[in-house]
Amino acid sequence: MGVLGVVAKRLDALVGPGIMLLFPLYASLRAIESPSTLDDQQWLTYWIIYSFITLFELSCWRILIWLPFWPYVKLLFCMWLVLPVFNGAAYIYENLVRKYVKIGGRVNGNYSEDQRKVLQMMSLDARKSVVQYVDKYGWDAFERAVKAAEREVKKH
């Protein structure tokens, strides 16, 4: 078995830490510093899923040692979760988690589907403040305030 054979056999050990830990760590730090909450959702979801995978491995290690393909399945799945081309963690959150876990309650009122999505992305405290503002001044006033804030951010 040559060098390429060894590399192919241990690809998960060579590439895995960078894809499963280093890149997500760097991206999480960038997400914390960015003003958008969408990247926060991607990386918080990634770390939750990665924690579940780790717990699964720790609980089922006696079975997993008999499955030689497990490290490669884990590597491919984590690549799907992490790589910006796929954004798998955000996909899982939007299509699986969000349907079943509603922390902070539902958004009530006469809001369009897009408006509900915007409100659901906010923290509970922010959502309460925005709902009060919208009730008092209307959704159009809220959108104008957001656009004004975006313009102000672009200036600096």
Automatic annotation (TrEMBL):
The chain crosses the membrane at residues 14-32, 44-66, 72-93. It is a multi-pass membrane protein. InterPro entries: TB2_DP1_HVA22. Pfam families: TB2_DP1_HVA22. It is found in: Membrane. Its main location: membrane. Keywords: Membrane, Transmembrane, Transmembrane helix. GO terms for cellular component: membrane. Belongs to the DP1 family. This is HVA22-like protein. It comes from Manihot esculenta (Cassava).
